[in-house]
């Protein structure tokens, strides 16, 4: 689990993630991984052109390299892109404030009936 976090991860967060993973059945991981390998969501991209999209990526993410997030940004040119230099894959723990701010922005636009797209 330590390898999924970026630089300076809080040891308590790493421990919490380890506990969650340990509590998950291996069959659940296998099913999830198998589904991820076969999924291709590109057909849904046109629908995303009508809404605000925010892509948040940890530059030290070993599971979803930032190069893939940048490719997603190219595919969705209207999306905002936040590259967090010292974070890895575990952004809810590592970049809680950044994620919360992005969600607040999305919700504010929804409430106002505006869109950046």
List descriptors.
117 residues; mainly alpha; Rossmann fold; two-stranded parallel sheet; 6 helices; 9% strand; AB_hydrolase_fold
CATH-scheme architecture = 3-Layer(aba) Sandwich
* Strand ordering within the main sheet: 1-2
Question: Could you state the CATH homologous superfamily?
Answer: Alpha/Beta hydrolase fold, catalytic domain
Q: What fraction of the residues are assigned to beta strands by DSSP?
A: 5-15%
CATH topology: Rossmann fold
The biggest sheet amounts to:
2 strands, parallel
Number of distinct beta strands: 2
Query: Structural class, from secondary structure content?
Result: mainly alpha
Terminal CA distance reads 37 Å
What do the pLDDT scores average to? Answer: 89
Stretches with pLDDT under 50, minimum 5 residues: none
DSSP helical segment count: 6
Helical fraction: 40-55%
What does this structure look like?
This protein starts with 10 loop residues before the first helix and ends in a 5-residue tail after the last helix. It is built from six helices and two strands; from the N terminus they run αααβαβαα. The chain has one domain: Rossmann fold, CATH 3.40.50.1820. The chain is mainly alpha-helical and 117 residues long. The mean pLDDT is 89.
């Amino acid at each position: 689990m330590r390898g999924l976090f970026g630089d300076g991860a809080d040891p308590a967060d790493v421990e919490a993630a380890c506990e969650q993973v340990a509590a998950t059945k291996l069959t659940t991981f296998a099913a999830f991984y198998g589904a991820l390998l076969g999924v291709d969501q590109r057909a849904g991209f046109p629908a995303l052109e009508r809404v605000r999209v925010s892509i948040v990526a940890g530059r030290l993410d070993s599971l979803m390299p930032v190069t893939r997030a940048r490719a997603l940004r190219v595919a969705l040119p209207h999306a905002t892109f936040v590259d967090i230099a010292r974070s890895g894959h575990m952004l809810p723990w590592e970049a809680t404030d950044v994620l919360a701010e992005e969600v607040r922005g999305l919700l504010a636009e929804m409430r106002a009936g505006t869109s950046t797209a």
